[in-house]
């Protein structure tokens, strides 16, 4: 059985190195958790595609089913699910996120 939502998700995460499924947009996040992840990525100078799950109820549930993760935001790097807000924040604070992005070949432009 074809699942158009899952196909769209696969397309987005294969076409873009870094994808954030979030509530709202990178310019105007609609929840604090999404805003936190946007802040982390922006701080690191990572180019990413933000996808607003509030615009599409099918996508809002579909991304949770796709990743088997119950919450949004969800960050994908090079097609791989990395985590939600708490995981991203912890990885950023420990330096693990920067290492993960670097090892995946994602450019960052962190100000020294």
**β-strand number:** 4
Please mark out the parts with pLDDT under 50 across 5 or more consecutive residues, or reply none: none
* Shape category: globular
Helix/strand order: HEHEHEEHH
The value of Rg in angstroms is 13 Å
Query: Strand pairing plus helix content: what structural class?
Result: alpha+beta
Output the number of helix runs: 5
Question: Biggest sheet, in brief?
Answer: 4 strands, mixed
Strand order of the largest sheet: 2-1-3-4
Q: Averaged pLDDT, please? A: 94
Summarize the structure in short.
The chain is α+β, with helices and mostly antiparallel strands and 112 residues long. It has 5 helices and 4 strands; from the N terminus they run αβαβαββαα.
């Amino acid at each position: 059985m074809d699942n158009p939502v899952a196909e769209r998700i696969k397309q987005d995460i294969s076409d873009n190195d870094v994808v954030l499924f979030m509530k709202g947009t990178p310019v105007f996040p609609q929840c604090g958790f999404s805003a936190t992840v946007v802040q982390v990525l922006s701080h690191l100078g990572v180019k990413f595609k933000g996808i607003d799950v509030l615009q599409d109820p099918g996508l809002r549930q579909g991304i949770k089913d796709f990743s088997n993760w119950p919450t949004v935001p969800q960050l994908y790097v090079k097609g791989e699910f990395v985590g939600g807000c708490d995981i991203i924040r912890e990885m950023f604070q420990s330096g693990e996120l920067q290492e993960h992005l670097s090892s995946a070949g994602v450019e960052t432009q962190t100000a020294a």
